[in-house]
Specification:
Order of helices and strands: HHHHH
Number of strands: 0
Number of domains: 1
Low-confidence stretches: none
Number of helices: 5
Largest sheet: none
Shape: elongated
Helix content: 55-70%
Distance between the termini: 62 Å
């Protein structure tokens, strides 16, 4: 079976073209796999928030997989998750260093992501967006962990 696919591909493409196709698929997978883990973190963070305090459904984060649309939708996701966390932290009397957890770094990431589309500017904006994305991701994981801790008399 594999030999048949290989002979079909070699009939359509040369070895160099096949290498380029495999390289492109590899780069795509290296980018999409961490992004899927990121979306799972956002979804689980929203699941940790009580339904009354959620400003969006947890499944809505998967709309970020839609190219171009995700540039706008990410602003909305960041805003709604930070607002949800703010209400949940207030209800549970959980102390936070920010009034809206993750909002500032999340918006910085969104703005830098939009700038990363612009030629020349992208050389500075893309690495900065990557750093902000990682910081926002870690922040959302920390917030989820705070929400999953059992309520004690000290927290209430």
């Amino acid at each position: 079976m594999l030999l048949k696919i290989n002979s079909i591909l070699l009939g359509l493409f040369g070895p160099q073209e096949i290498f380029v196709i495999i390289a492109i698929l590899g780069v795509f997978l290296l980018g999409i796999i961490p992004f899927i883990f990121y979306l799972v973190t956002l979804q689980n963070t929203l699941y940790a928030v009580s339904t009354e305090n959620r400003k969006m459904s947890p499944g809505s984060v998967w709309l970020l997989l839609i190219p171009v649309f995700n540039l706008v939708w990410h602003f909305i996701v960041v805003d709604r998750i930070s607002e949800s966390l703010r209400f949940e932290f207030a209800e549970r009397n959980i102390n936070s260093t920010e009034s809206s957890p993750g909002r500032s770094i999340g918006l910085a990431f969104c703005i830098l992501s939009c700038c990363a589309v612009i030629p020349i500017v992208n050389t500075l904006a893309a690495p900065a967006a990557l750093v902000c994305w990682i910081i926002f991701w870690v922040k959302m994981h920390e917030c989820k962990m705070k929400l999953q801790q059992p309520q004690t008399a000290a927290n209430v």
